[in-house]
Amino acid sequence: MKKYKKLINAGIFSSAILFTTWGLNKLVFLSAGIKDSLFCENTYQYAWRFGNIFYTKKGSGSPVLLIHELKTTGSAAEWKSIVNTLAKEHTVYTLDLLGCGRSDKPKMTYTNYIYVQLVNDFIKDVIGVKTDVITSCSSSSIAIMGCYSEPELYHRLILVNPTSMKVMAKYPKANHKTLKYLLELPLIGTTLYNLITSTFAIKKELKKNLYYPNRCMKKDIDVRFEASHRGGASARYFYASERSYFTNVNMLHALKKLNHSICIVAGAGLSDIEDILDSYVSYNPSIETEIIDNCKRYPHIEQSDSFSNLCSIYLS
């Protein structure tokens, strides 16, 4: 009889913990959009094969497409500091990649090839002409592979702090596939995802690795938190793929074959940036490089004036 009561009490206690965890997770996603940090004007929807893609369009002139970092906290808001300046001379497009920000977040495995198809289809269906493309960090691989597969769609490329070739060559192994499975589980995966993308975790990463010292980050934290939680718990599926290297690609062969004008813009505050630049130039000697002082991962945010001036010169 006592064992039976203990089992009942244990069951009640376990159910209470599970229900509380579910409720807290639900609350996190519901509260993410309260500040509406991602609000912007001139917004549109592109109905793509795997879901609706959020994008903006502003200005007039030759088209420029801005692609945010391929990361669960990423969104078109990353380019907010430079859009108005570029729009004085160009038609500027920004988009939230599938699984990110305000775009749909289907429950699927995300791969680099999917994003290459998305960007190429977007240029063909929405922009309609050869386009200059500016990318951020890991999304540089999308532009490189997209330009390699359909070179007629691309004009010039500006790659901001592209991820190292060594990192991009990593591929999913057995342990990564196990991690992906855990992250996609309804309760465990959602809880882990909310811990990893909490405001505390985002602030810590920005302060330690991404931003130059003494930068005010409150608004940036809110933007990234909302971007990673818009659309509910299905947001964890993209993170599971990205964290497990499913969005990676070995782009060595493609980079060697590109004949397009390419410029890499780097933040001087990154410790390994010289090695990364040397690696890219060694595979394609025609690549130009520029280093901007007093910034790290995002020169277009931290030194937006210098970055905009550089883009104006390069895209003229």
Describe, in plain words, how this protein is organized in 3D.
This protein has 316 residues and is an alpha/beta fold. The chain has a single domain, classed as Rossmann fold (3-Layer(aba) Sandwich). Helix content is 48%, strand content 16%. It has helices at 2-31, 80-86, 112-127, 140-149, 165-168, 174-183, 186-196, 199-210, 218-229, 235-243, 252-257, 273-283, 299-302, 304-314; strands at 43-48, 51-58, 62-67, 90-95, 131-136, 154-160, 261-267, 288-292. The chain has an 8-stranded mixed sheet with strand order 1-2-4-3-5-6-7-8, sandwiched between helices. The chain starts with a helix and ends with a helix. The mean pLDDT is 89.
Provide the structure class: alpha/beta
Q: What is the CATH superfamily label?
A: Alpha/Beta hydrolase fold, catalytic domain
Task: List the total number of helices.
Answer: 14
What is the CATH topology classification name?
Answer: Rossmann fold
